Please model this.
Amino acid sequence: MQHLRTVNDVTHAVVSVDRGAAFQNIVESMRQWRISALPVVADGGWVAGVISGADLLPRAQGVDVPRSDTAGQLMTAPAVTVTHDATLAGAAPGVVDVAVRVNVDNPPRR
Model:
């Protein structure tokens, strides 16, 4: 029997920031871990959004972006998420299509 690879099989560590993370901390985390995007987590650990280099670019270029001091203000939301036991084949279409999928282990609280 062939084992279908899951998200858990290819995920080793997840670096994230909380909603209150400052611009400088976000940039430092991306630089330190050599990554271009980070999940932004809310209280309770659920994924509230994603922050990428594209979200930081206007601020880094000196453009006056209103209320752009924290990850929660700069992030793109909602985030596309899947559970750790999702197969890679099953997870890929949701991510590629940018369909909004809620992590059933950690549903968002409104």
Summary: The longest helix spans residues 23-33. Helices lie at 7-10, 23-33, 53-60, 71-74, 88-96. DSSP finds five helices and three strands in the chain. Residues 36 and 54 are 9 Å apart (CA to CA).
